[in-house]
Amino acid sequence: MSYFDELAFQYIDGEWRAGSGSWDIVDFNPYDGEKLASIAVASVTEIDQAYRAAERAQPAWAATNPYTRRLVFERALRIIDEREEALTEAITAEVGGTAVKVAFELRLVREFLRESLHLALLPEGRVLPSPDDTKENRLYRVPVGVVGVISPFNFPFLLSIKSVAPALALGNAVVLKPHQNTPICGGGLVAKVFEEAGLPPGLLNVVVTDIAEIGDALIEHPVPKVISFTGSDRVGRHVATVAASHFKRTILELGGNSALIVLDDADLDYAVDAAVFSRFIHQGQVCMAANRVLVDRSVEAEFTEKFVAKVKTLKVGDPADPATHIGPLINAGQAEGITTLVEQTIADGATALLHGTSDGTLVAPSVLTGLAADSPVLGQEIFGPVVLIIPFDGEEEAVRIANDTPYGLSGAVHTGDVERGVRVAKRIDSGMVHVNDGTVHDEPIVPFGGEKHSGVGRLNGEAVVDAFTTTKWISVQHGRSRFPF
């Protein structure tokens, strides 16, 4: 585990150093409990040092020819290709990612880095007309300056890169705080890749810490102009409130309660495959996961029989075993919470078609149905291997049930008629809906984000230009203005 020994530090102004906080974050393997690293937390002092380093380094980086900035991302791609085996081992150890999950994550990391090559060249100026014949109005897209990024534990390498890379490509500097459960994959690895790729010191800083040590210093600090946060809606609400009080913009990618809808004319075998993947990829610890599978009552029996049969084939165990489908949840608290949720839902009257047992952080799949319409579990995000099967009668009821949640991130509609699927998808109150596919998708040029409690703003492609740059108006008077006094 050389990465865990090498990167168990703060990374500030191009230097790896210990934090000065009053306690250590201990990094554990969620599968076997092995201690991977111990990191002295960053204090408010290090937060300030990181932001000030970013502030000093950013102007020269913004002035660097974008073709030159692109070279950093080209080298980063090569490093990831060369270190794929070590990166895979690190993600498996720290995150509990199965072979399928790790491959999915690293593929998307590459795609987002490739897109960053283009983003460096994407901001374009405009010249707008003026009522004054002698005036010229120029609009420039300029970097916001410094971006604060707070990333989650479930896809830490990807979801850090997803904000860090475009922010850097567009001429900004970044201070990144990874989740305390994944400080290496979400922070240290990101810094290491860009350091080796030749990113100048100070442009990317990683602070491993916790709100218990620094309070809201990461958000309140005067240097960052934008905060990009990925995590729960509860924490996202706090981030947005604090940031707004300091006149900072936020990009919030929050939780979900996605519905995968199976209409009466769907290919049931295909819909089963899509639903199983959409619910159980990375143990269900995915914001886009299909918490709820809505099935037309006319095909409910056949679909459910096939769905349960397929779920029974999923292997639960060591994520390092290529045959494993479902590895550990991120920590014991998460596993206990999911187990308690299942037991309470059954006690409230739900039927368990599969009742998954738990062993430490390993939780086997549960398939629940027969829920009361007012069951609390229907409206919440379930971050674990639990799926709810809900019958409906016709499209109208399907849409109503799908929208009956405070979240609106992703979704899917399965049907034999694509245009019917699109019509239904348009009525789902979510940022993304996929016809005849799974709910878990991300592509580097397509705007990614949610509605309602699932977030504010969008990432990817041109959307990140809006997120991480600002518009500057410069007018040029080629004649002489006339002033009233």
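Above is the first protein from milestone M3; the second protein from the same milestone is given next.
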Amino acid sequence: MPADSVSVTGWGRTAPTTARLVRPRTYGEAAAAVRECGARGGIARGLGRAYGDAAQNAGGAVLDMTGLDRIHAVDAGGGTVLCDAGVSLHRLMEVLLPLGWFVPVTPGTRYVTVGGAIGADIHGKNHHVSGSFSRHVLSFELLTADGEIRTVGRGTPLFDATAGGMGLTGVILTATVRLQPVESALMCVDTERATDLDDLMARLTTGDHRYRYSVAWIDLLARGARTGRSVLTRGDHAPLDALPPRARRHPLAFRPSRLPAAPAFVPEGLLGRTTVGLFNELWYRKAPRARRGELQPIPAFFHPLDGVPHWNRVYGRGGFVQYQFVVGHGREETLRRIVRRISERGCPSFLAVLKRFGEGDPGWLSFPVPGWTLALDIPANLPGLGAFLDELDEEVAGAGGRVYLAKDARLRPELLAAMYPRLGAFRSLRRELDPRGVFTSDLSRRLGL
């Protein structure tokens, strides 16, 4: 099986490392790649949307699983799909929407593989209703370090270690996923402005139960009485009777649009405080004070950035850090304090979102817990950024919160156990299942996973 030595990085384009990239096309080739990955081990990789170093492996092997991309069976009556782990959510939408089904959970990009969705236990705008992706996974096949292919069902330790386990228990080969029924490929969307962070949290707390999907863009450069001002967007799948007559002819048509790709070279400092501040001001002012029932295509509502290929290039060669944390209900003051600190420091972030999480799922390293989650992007070359985020980590850990490993690129290992109480069980199962440390990544070495 051919392998190339390549420089590999996460979507944030920070800390690239060199690895042997192996592209298996069959389950047998995947098993051979695991057996032959060498002393530095190997890690599976999908479409490379993890922001940090979770799918990198310096000096070892990286298994590009996108060649295993078959959809084996769709139960259009029962609402399940059996597919390879390398199938993207985009491909599932192309196949399933015409049949009246939608993926149960999608993050801000549909260019994520099913294996990656399980390994990161991804969440979306509907966590307060539907939980994480793994809640909808009935079973999966896992290639473990001993070369065995195991069928792993819900409620087992191996399932719970793999869901959110960042690929460190083995290589997911196939999965059976329960789907969400829909009547159209349009969303019925309500949009409103919130004047500050307290106003936003009040609207989310009192109104989220009426919506399947909910997310708020937040202006992290606004200060004073405007701190945390936001644009709140909530909605659900539009029923057939809500569509205008023309749209009812092809209600389940899925036609994503694409703009030109971001240029390969972008001047450093393009996304500084001035430019991002101007963008945030315009974005907030153009949003309606209150608009109800707008019909939007699925790509516009869920994945607006997917319409711009390689949008991560706009941060320049230095890349960017995506920082996401969660703190529980009752810890709102911690959230307020962190938002104020980010605002006062002037961190230029135009992709900042706040959501409410519902009940967490049993994955030992799964990120969501009931509470508030804030995600923001920051240019990696911002002076003093590392020390500043270290301080935020301390606040988050002190409040019983955690950071999202699928987006992390710089967390200190000594905080990990405080953030993830099941870490000891995860490490113990890994030692038992993979005593030679076959499955290894830059993330696992950095954090001692």
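Note on the second protein: The chain has a mean pLDDT of 95.
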